[in-house]
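User: Working on a comparison across species. This one is TonB-dependent receptor plug domain-containing protein from Hwangdonia lutea. Can you predict its structure so I can line it up against the others?
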Amino acid sequence: MSRKGTGSIFILLFFLNVAAFSAQTIQKEKHTLVVVLKIIETRYNISFSYADATIENKKTVIPDEDLTLAEVLEFLKEKTTLDFELLNDRFVAIKARKPLSLFHTTQRLDEIVITNYLTTGITKLNDGIITIKPETFGILPGLIEPDVLQTIQSLPGVLSIDETVSNINIRGGTHDQNLLLWDGIKMYQSGHFFGLISAFNPYTTKQVNVSKNGTPAKYGDGISSIIDMQMPNKIDNTFKAGGGFNLINADVFAKIPLTHNTELQISTRRSVTDLITTPTYDLYKKRVFQDSDLTNFNQNDHAIDKNEEFYFYDITAKFLYDITKKDKIRLHFLNVNNKLNYEEQANINDRNEALNSKLSQQNLALGFSYTRDWNAKLATTAQVNVSNYDLDATNFDIINNQRLIQENKVIDGSAKLDVDYKHSNLLKLNGGYQFIEVGISNLEDVNNPVFRSYIRDVVRSHALYAEAAFLSIDAKTNLKFGNRINYFSKFNMILNEPRLSFSQRFLNHFRFELLGELKSQTTSQIIDLQNDFLGIENRRWVLSNNNKVADTINNKIIQPVPILKSKQASVGVHYNKNKLLISAEGYLKKVDGITTRSQGFQNQYQFVNSIGSYQIKGIDFLINKQLSHVFSTWLSYSYSKNDYTFPDLNNGMSFPNNADVRHALALSGIYTYNDIKLALGLNWHSGKPTTLPDYANDNPDDNTITYANPNGSNLNDYLRADCSATYSLDVSDTATAIVGLSVWNIFNRKNIINTYYTLDGDNNIVPIENISLGITPNVSIRVSF
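Assistant: Here's the predicted structure for TonB-dependent receptor plug domain-containing protein from Hwangdonia lutea:
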C-alpha cells in the first residue's frame, strides 16, 4: 500500500473515531481519597498539593459530575474534615484542619503543572521532568501494557530510529548516553528480545522520571537523558497481586505485607517462546535476527537457525523494613536475562557434524538503602549498589573449524549519601556525596589461529553535589540551581557541572521555561565489528581512558576513548487552559569526545578510529486537547539538525549525524467509554542518513567499495500506524481482569530502517536492507486483585 493511501485511510479512520465517540465516561465509585483526587484533577484540570500523611487513611465517595469545582471542594471538606484551599484556577492546597491561629502558615505546592500529558498517568512538572506512573497509565497506540521504554518514545524529542528500546535516541544522542536507573541502580541492559521489549516489569514500577535537560545535580552520567525507574517505597499494609500473559511472555507480581512494618515486593516474567511458537514471536524473531549469524550463511552452509532456542526472563524483589517511624531500610534485587542457543550443522568429509553456538546477556543489580528522618525538615539516605552486566557469546564456524569466544563484563559499584533539607515551605535544599567504581573487561579468544586478547580497565570517581529549589507560594515561579563536581582520580581531572531549571507562569495560562546543564560520562558503547556477538548485540561497553593517541597493551592496540562532555540549553513556552495544551521548546546541545566506533558507521568510516563531536539544534512542538475525560488527541512535531564534526574526517567539514532525523511527527487519539479504551496513532519521520557507493569512481578490482559523501543521502521516509484496545471487567469483589488487543503497523508498511553495502564473491556491490516490523498483533489477558 502506498504511503499516500496509508495516510488517507488513517486520517479517515481517525476522524471517524472522533465523530463517532461522543458518550461520557461512567466513573465507578472509589473510596480511597488519593484515587478520588486523581479523578477530580482530570475532571476539572486542576492539581492538588498535599503531604502524603495528610490524606492517609482518608476515604470518600466520588462527587457527582454535575457539581461545580467549588461545590466539589465543599463536599470534600465535609466528608474528609480537611481544608481545601483554591489558590487559583489551577492549584488546590490540602491541609489538615487546625484551630484558628494568629500566625499565617503556607503550604508548599507540588510541582505538577500538566496532568494527563498525552494520556492518564503521564505528568509534566514545572522543572521540566516528565513523570510516568504505570499504575494509573491509560493507553497508547500499539501498546496494551505500560512498557516503560516504549512509552517514553511517545514524548516529543524521543525517537528510536530502529524501533527498539535498546536504541533510544533522545535529542540526537545514542542509547548509551541515557542513564537508566532502577531504584537508584545504574542498568547496562535495557531490553528483552534484544531490544524489542523493555527489560523492566511495569507492574512493579511505581514511577518513572524522565529528564532531557536541566537534570537535578544528584544525577551524574547520562549526557542525553535520565530515566529513573522507582519501585514503591512506602509500606501501606495492603496486599496486592496480579498476573497475565500475552503472545510473548507471562508474568506475576505480588506486594505482600509481612508484618505491620515489613513488606516484600516480588515479580517475575518469562518468555513463552521456547514453550509455544506464536505468530507474534515469529515476527519478532524475523525482525531481531535478520542480518545476523542466524540468517547470514553461504551456500555451503546448512540453515543454522533450524534448531534455534531463545528465551528471556526477569526477576525483581524489594524488601521494605520500617525500623521506626524515622528509620527505614530497603533491599533491592533485579536479574534480567536473555539466552539464545542454536545448532549449526554441516557435512564435512561425508560426516555430519553439529556444534552449538550461544549468546547470553544478563544484568544483575543489588542495592541497600537506609533512610533517616531526623526531624520534619532534615532527612538523609545512604545507599550502596552493585550492578553487574555480562554479555557472552560462543560462535562456531563449522566450515572453517573455528571457535570464537567473546565476553563483555561490567561491574559498577557505588556508594551515595544524600541529604534533603526543607528550610521552609518555599525553599528546599539537596546535597550529597557519591563514589563510583566501574570496571569493564573485554575478552576475545579464537582457537584457529590461536589468539587471545583480554583487556580490563577501572575508573573511580568522587562527586559532591548541592542544589537549591525555590517555589513561590502562588506556584508562578520555580527555580532550581545546582552544581555537581566530579573528580576522576585516574586522570587527576575535576569537572564542574552546573544545572539550571527555571519556570515562570504569566498571563495565568502561559509558562516560560529555561533549562540548562553541563554533564559528563565515562562509559560508552562501541562496535568493533558488525558481526560481533553473533551480529545480534554487537555493541560492547568500554571505559574512557582519556588517551589522546592509541596505546598498546598485550600486543593489542588500545584506541583513545575520551570522557564524554555535553552542554545543553533550552527555552520553552507552554499554554495550558480548558484542557488544551500547546507547548514549544527549542534547544541546542553539543557533545564532545565521541568516537567513530561508538556511532556504528557502516560506510568508509567503519574501520576508522577518530575523535569528534556532534551538535544538534531543534524544536519540539506539542498540541494536546482533552474533551472531558472521554477523548484525548495530540499532535507532536520535532525538527532537528544534527551534525558530526571529526577533524580527521571529511576534510574537517561537518556532515549529518547517523541519528539525524530532521522531521518527526506523531498524531494520536484516545477514546474511553465505560471500561473500554481505544487508541489509534500515526508515526512518521524522515529517513535516516545513509552513504551511497560512488559507482562512477568505484574500482571493481581493488576489493573495496568507493563511497560518495558520508551520510549524503537519506532512506525513504518512515511511516507506521498503530492501534490498541483494552476492556476491563470485575470478575469478583476484589479481582479485576483486563483484556487487551494491539496491532503494530496495521497497514503492514515496509519501512527500511538501515541500508549498507557489501561485496559478493565477484566483487559486485550488494545492498543489504534491514526492515522494520511488519503488521504485528498481540493479545493480553491480565488479572489483578
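For your comparison, note: The chain has two domains: 32-110, 122-784.

User: Helpful, thanks.
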